[in-house]
Design goal:
The complex is a heterodimer of chains A (about 90) and B (about 250). Chain A has about 90 residues and is of the alpha+beta class. Chain A has one domain. In chain A, about 20% of the residues lie in helices and about 45% in strands. Chain A has a four-stranded antiparallel sheet with strand order 1-2-3-4. Chain A is globular, with a radius of gyration of 14 Å. By secondary structure, chain B is an alpha/beta fold. In chain B, helix 3 crosses helix 4. The chains are: A alpha+beta (about 90), B alpha/beta (about 250).
């Protein structure tokens, strides 16, 4: 789409990339052309640590179908966690 | 024909006097040679766009590809730089014009230059090619499927750009436009609207819309690649630059 249409959110956690684990504080979510995945458009998520610079990024590019399945799986797992934990 | 060339990373002076990274590809001939500024697509200053720069150099043009994300992500890989630029809403129009002006000055300053400079851009760079051509004195321009020359980004988009249609009257050079009939950004209706405005303003232009092709049909690394459209498109690009940038 090349629209820069992007959801940005603050997050709290860690992610592992080529240089090892990093704290991540921000995420960008967008549906656009991928860099590496096949398919014309993918659901892309960047997990970021902006103070560490643009290279502090763990990225995924998922087909729309697998992204929806992932979102559903995340919700199922969180909803089934013991009360008070998630 | 002597066909040696050099391709290397250089620093040029961009908008606001900033030193920015650029990829320069030049024939090793004394000239005089025309120059081409290549504006990369939204995924950034990547291998595919560097190949385009070398393609122009092989064909006899001094070529420079400014890294429009130099400031956001100096030294970062192209995909990380593009992600950082995206998160900030893209490249501001004023800065783009300043960076292309710097790239054009770099080309005109080469000892082999014939003084003529054209611009070509892909995807978001297509719009930026048009923007440069209505903002700067240039000799030829090519817009490859640039969105939002006509129309505005969807509501909620962080991309803060407006339409450029009302700037058509300021177009400084002949414009070649290459589009895919299946594209939605820009849509065929938007392409038609732009062409009507070019006609109304009496601007030299040539538009081609390829059936069976969508956005990014030139991009050999993507499923969107359409060889027939791309081969015909390249031929038209070189005809266009041959006509307006030759010595």
């Amino acid at each position: 789409m090349c629209t820069y249409l992007t959801e940005k959110l603050e997050i709290s956690g860690s992610a592992k990339g080529p240089s090892g684990w990093i704290r991540v504080s921000d995420a960008s979510v967008y549906f656009d052309h991928p860099v590496h995945a096949s398919g014309e458009h993918t659901l892309n998520i960047d997990f970021l640590n902006p103070p560490m610079g643009p290279s502090a990024r763990v990225a995924v590019e998922l087909s729309a179908e697998s992204a929806r399945a992932l979102a559903k799986a995340i919700a199922v797992v969180l909803d089934s966690a013991p009360p008070g934990l998630a | 024909m002597y066909d040696a060339m050099i391709a290397e990373t250089v620093q040029i002076t961009g908008h606001g006097g900033d030193a920015i990274e650029a990829y320069s590809a030049r024939p090793l001939r004394p000239g005089p040679l025309g120059g081409v500024v290549v504006i990369h697509h939204m995924p950034g200053y990547d291998e595919w766009t560097k190949e385009i720069a070398r393609k122009f150099a092989v064909s006899g043009y001094n070529t420079v590809l400014p890294n429009l994300y130099s400031r956001e992500a100096p030294g970062a890989s192209p995909d990380d730089a593009a992600a950082a630029a995206r998160a900030r809403g893209g490249v501001p129009d004023g800065r783009l014009v300043g960076d292309v002006a710097g790239a054009a000055a770099y080309l005109r300053g080469l000892t082999s230059s014939n003084g003529r400079v054209g611009v070509i851009g892909y995807c978001s760079g297509g719009r930026q090619s048009f923007l440069a051509a209505v903002s700067l004195p240039l000799d030829a321009a090519v817009d490859c499927y640039g969105a939002f020359v006509v129309g505005t980004p969807p509501e909620g988009s962080p991309l803060k750009v407006g339409p450029l249609l009302d700037r058509t009257k300021d177009l400084s050079c002949p414009l070649l436009g290459l589009f895919g009939a299946d594209d939605r950004y820009p849509s065929p209706e938007q392409v038609t609207e732009l062409e009507q405005e070019l006609k109304a303003q009496g601007k030299t232009h040539e538009f081609h819309t390829y059936e069976g092709a969508g956005h990014a049909f030139f991009n050999t690394g993507r499923p969107a690649y359409r060889p027939e459209a791309a081969l015909d498109g390249w031929q038209r690009v070189f005809t266009w630059f041959g006509r307006y940038l030759a010595a």
